[in-house]
């Protein structure tokens, strides 16, 4: 808004361009980039943007209809000013004084002597002007051109307003389509090599700090595939498989959110089929009752008396609050309407009583006629009506149709009553006699107050102004409460003005006004009551869910006591007690009850064209694939229900068992699952989209770093994205090579420490203990390397450990197979970390990426994440893939020292430069 005002105030071409440049520089996302590299200061950017080449480029990109209209308005203003100046030059007088003298005289006379005197002055001036025109004197010549200059000045003002409007439109287009893209390209050019390696977080990373926070879902290929499968199936069980952390839980939660009714159930880590089915049944009942807007029963530990007392206290508090508003309002309304009501009752009492008496007599005569058997046809109709009413208890079509009639005609009747109450003002003879006595200024003032009050009330209830606010120091003032206070003040003042003004007080004092106001209120209430519906009876399924919850979550005990006694001289009696306790349902009974209940719920919702979806998550945390298959075998009994979709997240090995489909033998997946979805690791493009959705500061290079370290797994991608921001906040460094070095070495240090802990549990001898020494030496170098300018010992040690296979080391001959496997995995991960370090922690990433991509498919960025995923399968195949990647990137194939790279790192070190 401020920029638009400035564009309107200064609409010249140069000023519009300068304002667009300043507004683009003041944008926080762009201002944070300035000054982070040499030659990218604010002054340097301004100096470049004011050069002819960038100014012309911005004008060219914003060359459209808005610029054409702006140019036309600019030329029109210049022509209007030229004509006005030419007319002013012809006159010897000051045209401003000549044009302003006559209105000033007329206004002065109007204020001092009234309207008639000002009219006489105006006619006199007109006659004098005509006389001067007839005589053709010099006075007429000067007056003529002064008046012409004043008239042309009005056209100049109109042209200036049009130019300001066109300047606002063209300035907006120039800013968005011209200045911003040209400035962004110029800033990238000033940054030099690898502009995307500059990481500047904006502090808006809520999506990374809360990975499961709603509102950050990015559509992926797996989501689209799941939606296609659900749209082609009426019901069924679909397994969702993939590595841990790939986003299966997010996929299930998103699918449940898109369904009409459903929930996500967590599979137990320690599998117990009966407990899981009980929790699933309870969740089904509670969620369905909540879906139907009924509260789930609470099994409180209070006694029945305390529960009743607590409920009564809550109801009394609600009743007291309602009564504190309803009773005074009703009393005031009755007090105000009672005089008019009594007058109306006295006027129509006799005719109303006669009408009621006549209607009552007619009804009684009709009943007597039917009872006496004198109206056989009427008796048949009455019998049919009674039977119809009884049969409509299951399908209450009669109350439903009456409700429809009420909903349709109640607003019309209420509107007619309200309009009739207002229109009665126009036909009241007393008000028609008093209305001409009210001055026009009173009507004008009351109308202005009423319109202002109406707009203030509308603004206080507007959703667009709900979040509008003004910050004054440490206080924040919202527009809604201010408008509400202003509307209240105007309403009170309007009523005070009408009451205290004698002419309007007589209009308000009409005896029929309270009745009119009551009719208006009744009409409005009747129109609003059209939307009221009585609360429907509790559905059968909700009652069944309540009973099922009581069955699952309580143990019910019933005791019956019978006492017999005979009161004689000697008392004889007996007492009998019977206690009955419910038995918890066993697993077959649970299965049967769950299937019946879910079938009824699904059928009910299917008739409403709604879908039921139940997701079972975390099945892959049960442990081995045998336990997961056993879990599927147990819950198979609750699958395959009509109109119900099941989504089950399973591990990759269970998914592989389903894909084999009986080769060489069949298992439980063939009969339990209807289809399967493989959730693949996200691509680099999807990773960039996910990070952009959850954070505003990440660049393609930081997305590449997080994607390469995570292998495309969603959970690790978000974790590494947050770690990149944490490292930047800790080191205060914005360049990717240094952030990548810190992150890669930090992950390598933690991983090697974990491998060393596992290796410590193996058996070692004097000859094989050198492996632990290599680990200790490498970990020591990782801790003693604070910056990248002097890390050659670290890189040399890491290269020697990563490049040399374990079978070529003499100290590896006598170790166990488990220890050898751990050492090979650690060496392969070190090989991967060294590759990432040499690719991402060196300058010129864009240039080197183009060269690597030209070498073949192994030079693409996606291969780095593929290598990370391959490490989870086999260290040997991963080593082969990493070797191909290193060849494509022209990296050393052995533990050699990179002298040129060391000099570049030392030259670009932010700590020692």
What would you call the structural class?
alpha/beta
Widest β-sheet, arrangement of strands: 2-7-8-1-9
Uncertain segments: 659-668, 899-907
Biggest sheet, in brief? 5 strands, parallel
Helix proportion: 55-70%
Could you tell me the radius of gyration in angstroms?
Answer: 43 Å
In what range is the share of β-strand residues?
A: 5-15%
Number of DSSP E strands? 9
Distance between the termini: 44 Å
Overall geometry comes to flat
Provide the domain count: 5
Q: What's the rounded overall pLDDT mean?
A: 78
Number of helices: 37
Explain what this protein looks like in three dimensions.
This protein is an alpha/beta fold and 913 residues long. The protein has five domains: 191 residues, no CATH class; 166 residues, Rossmann fold; 55 residues; 81 residues; 173 residues, no CATH class. The protein is built from 37 helices and nine strands. The strands form three sheets. It has a five-stranded parallel beta sheet with strand order 2-7-8-1-9, sandwiched between helices. A hairpin with a 5-residue loop joins strand 5 and strand 6. Helix 2 runs parallel beside helix 9 and helix 5 packs across helix 9. The longest helix is centred in the middle third of the chain and has 68 residues. It is flat, with a radius of gyration of 43 Å.
């Amino acid at each position: 808004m401020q920029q638009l005002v400035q564009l309107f105030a200064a609409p010249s071409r140069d000023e519009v361009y300068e304002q667009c440049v300043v507004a683009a520089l003041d944008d926080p996302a762009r201002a944070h980039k300035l000054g982070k590299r040499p030659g990218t200061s604010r002054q340097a950017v301004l100096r470049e943007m004011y050069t002819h080449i960038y100014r012309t480029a911005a004008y060219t990109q914003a060359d459209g209809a808005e610029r054409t209209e702006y140019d036309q308005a600019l030329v029109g203003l210049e022509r209007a000013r030229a004509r006005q100046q030419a007319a002013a030059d012809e006159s010897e007088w000051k045209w401003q004084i000549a044009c302003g003298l006559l209105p000033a005289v007329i206004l002065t006379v109007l204020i001092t002597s009234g309207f008639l005197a000002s009219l006489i002055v105006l006619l006199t001036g007109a006659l004098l002007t005509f006389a001067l025109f007839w005589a053709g004197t010099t006075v007429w010549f000067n007056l003529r051109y002064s008046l012409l200059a004043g008239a042309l000045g009005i056209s100049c003002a109109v042209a200036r307003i049009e130019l300001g409007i066109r300047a606002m439109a063209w300035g907006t287009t120039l800013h968005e389509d011209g200045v911003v893209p040209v400035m962004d390209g110029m800033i990238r050019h000033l940054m030099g090599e690898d502009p995307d390696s500059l990481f500047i977080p904006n502090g808006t990373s809520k999506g990374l700090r809360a990975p499961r926070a709603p509102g950050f879902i990015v559509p992926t290929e797996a989501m689209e595939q799941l939606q296609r499968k659900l749209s082609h199936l009426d019901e069924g069980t679909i397994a969702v498989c993939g590595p841990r952390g790939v986003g299966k839980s997010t996929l299930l939660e998103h699918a449940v959110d898109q369904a009409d009714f459903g929930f996500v159930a967590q599979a137990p880590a320690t599998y117990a089929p009966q407990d899981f089915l009980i929790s699933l049944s309870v969740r089904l009942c509670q969620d369905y009752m909540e879906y139907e807007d009924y509260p789930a029963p609470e099994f409180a530990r209070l006694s029945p008396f305390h529960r009743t007392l607590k409920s009564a206290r809550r109801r009394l508090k609600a009743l007291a609050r309602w009564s504190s508003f309803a009773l005074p309002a009703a009393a005031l309304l009755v007090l105000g309407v009672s005089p008019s009501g009594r007058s109306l009752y006295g006027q129509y009492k006799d005719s109303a009583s006669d009408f009621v008496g006549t209607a009552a007599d007619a009804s009684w005569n009709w009943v007597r006629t039917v009872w006496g058997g004198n109206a056989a046809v009427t008796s048949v109709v009455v019998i049919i009506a009674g039977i119809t009413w009884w049969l409509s208890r299951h399908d209450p079509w009669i109350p439903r149709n009456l409700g429809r009639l009420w909903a349709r005609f109640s607003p019309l009747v209420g509107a007619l009553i309200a309009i009739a109450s207002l229109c009665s003002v126009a036909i009241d003879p007393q008000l028609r006699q008093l209305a001409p006595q009210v001055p026009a200024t009173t009507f004008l003032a009351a109308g202005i107050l009423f319109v202002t009050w109406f707009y203030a009330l509308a603004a206080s209830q507007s959703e667009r102004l709900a979040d509008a606010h003004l910050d004054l120091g440490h206080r924040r003032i919202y527009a809604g409460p201010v408008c509400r206070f202003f509307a209240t003040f105007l309403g009170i003042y309007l009523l005070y003005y009408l009451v205290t003004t004698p002419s309007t007080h007589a209009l308000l004092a009409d005896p029929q006004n309270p009745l009119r106001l009551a009719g208006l209120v009744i009409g409005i209430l009747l129109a609003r009551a059209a939307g009221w519906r009585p609360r429907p009876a509790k559905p059968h399924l909700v009652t069944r869910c309540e009973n099922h919850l009581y069955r699952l979550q309580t143990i019910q005990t019933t005791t019956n006591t019978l006492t017999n006694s005979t009161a004689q001289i000697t008392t004889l009696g007996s007492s009998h007690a019977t206690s009955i306790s419910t038995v918890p349902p066993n697993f077959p009974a649970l299965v049967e009850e769950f299937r019946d209940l879910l079938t009824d719920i699904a059928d009910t919702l299917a008739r409403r064209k709604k879908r039921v979806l139940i997701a079972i998550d975390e099945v892959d945390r049960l442990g081995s694939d045998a336990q997961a298959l056993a879990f599927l075998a147990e819950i198979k009994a609750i699958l395959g229900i009509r109109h119900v979709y099941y989504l089950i997240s399973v591990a990759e090995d269970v998914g592989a068992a389903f894909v084999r489909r009986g080769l060489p033998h069949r298992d439980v997946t063939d009969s339990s699952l209807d289809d399967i979805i493989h959730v693949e690791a996200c691509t680099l493009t999807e990773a960039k989209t996910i990070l952009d959705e959850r954070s505003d500061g990440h660049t393609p290079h930081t997305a590449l770093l997080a994607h390469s370290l995570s292998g495309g797994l969603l959970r690790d991608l978000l974790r590494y994205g947050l770690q990149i921001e944490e490292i930047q906040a800790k080191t205060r460094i914005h360049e990717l090579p240094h952030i990548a070095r810190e992150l890669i070495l930090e992950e390598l240090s933690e991983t090697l420490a974990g491998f060393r802990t596992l290796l410590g549990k193996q058996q070692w001898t004097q000859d094989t203990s050198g492996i632990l020494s290599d680990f200790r030496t490498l970990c020591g170098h990782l801790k003693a390397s604070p910056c990248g300018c002097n890390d050659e010992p670290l890189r040399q040690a890491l290269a020697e450990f990563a490049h040399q296979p374990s079978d070529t080391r003499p100290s590896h001959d006598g170790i166990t197979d488990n220890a050898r496997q751990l050492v090979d995995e650690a060496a392969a991960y070190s090989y991967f970390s060294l590759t990432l370090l040499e690719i991402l922690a060196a300058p010129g990433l864009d240039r080197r990426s183009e060269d690597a991509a030209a070498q073949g498919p192994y030079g693409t960025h996606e291969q780095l994440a593929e290598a990370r995923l391959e490490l989870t399968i086999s260290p040997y195949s991963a080593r082969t893939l990493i070797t191909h990647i290193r060849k494509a990137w022209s990296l050393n194939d052995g533990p050699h020292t990179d002298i040129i790279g060391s000099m570049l790192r030392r030259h670009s070190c932010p700590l020692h430069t």
